Amino acid sequence: MYDDIRYETDGGIATITIDRPDVYNAFREQTIAELNVALREAFDDDGVYVIVLTGAEDGFCAGADVTEMPDWHEEMSKEDYAGYLRGVQNVVRQLRAGEKPSIAAVSGPAIGAGCDFALACDLRIVDEDARLREGFVRVGLVPGDGGGWLLPRLIGESKAKEYLLTGKDIDADDAVDLGLAVEIADDSLEAATDLAAEILDLPALAVRRTNALTDWEQTFEDYSADAIDYQWECVNDAEHHEAIAAFTEKREPEYERQYS
User: Fold this and answer.
1) PROSITE patterns recorded for this chain (predicted)?
2) Nearest CA to 52 among 3, 113, 6?
């Protein structure tokens, strides 16, 4: 089903790997189509609780593979180009909209749209060689995949514009200092999988609804109304009852689940 990515599930964790290591996992149109399908599969699968997004070998995603792209202004209409770009944007849209937590395991370059894929995840873990770059201005483009919206909300407008307007790298140390990354790990995928397993051990409905409540765009009144609805759902959830019983009885909770 997939040629440019790998999709694997293990014990409730779905790992999506962009698998074009010869070009540092730069994507072509087929890659984007497969990413969109894989994300839908992960979010729709009741046996998946956490999603890990990563790249094969020494790179996360180096953005668009220009050797696989047409000469845009000569071979495509604006409508055709908009259709292509919406496909890339939809990867970001799915990651932002999904309630299941997503974790980016970033090794090596995450550039352009590849950077935006990492920023769209709920959490990021980097290794020492990771570098995130909104490098669109360096090639005469704008951040059309979400970076100009995501980065200011993650690190503040002024600092975000420094990176957006210069196209310079955010290295691993800066990513942690800016709050973009949870940690620097020797093996970002292993650390991301460990973090996913930690989240997996918690009541799933509470995790999903907490993730949904953390919405940059909502007002406090909207937050408060949603919190009442979500809290009531959780009060009536079997995993909440088991978590309370386990706490009272001083034991580990045992949730009845079917994992993919």
Assistant:
1) ENOYL_COA_HYDRATASE (PS00166)
2) 6
> What are 74-125's pLDDT values in tens digits?
778 889 889 999 999 999 999 999 999 999 999 999 999 999 999 999 999 9
pLDDT of amino acid 133 = 98
User: CA–CA separation, 151 vs 117, rounded Å?
Assistant: 12
| Structural domain harbouring 233 | 204-248
With residue 76 as reference, give the H or E element that holds it.
none
Q: In this structure, are 116 and 217 located in the same domain?
A: no
Summarised one tens digit per residue, pLDDT across range 23-65 is 999 999 999 999 999 999 999 999 999 999 999 998 999 999 9
pTM of the model: 0.96
Q: Are residues 176 and 242 in the same domain?
A: no
Whether residue 227 is found in the same domain as residue 240:
yes
**19, 130: one domain:** yes
Residue 150: helix, strand or coil by DSSP?
helix
Residues contacting residue 239 through CB under 8 Å, at least 6 positions apart: 203, 204, 205, 206, 253, 255
Same-domain pairing of 162 and 234: no
Give one DSSP letter per residue of 158-195, joined into a string: HHHHHHHHH--EEEHHHHHHTTS-SEE-SSHHHHHHHH
* SS3 of residue 110 by DSSP: strand
Q: Report the alpha-carbon distance of residue 52 to residue 84 in Å, rounded.
A: 24
Nearest C-alpha neighbor of 230 from the set 258, 203, 195, 256 = 203
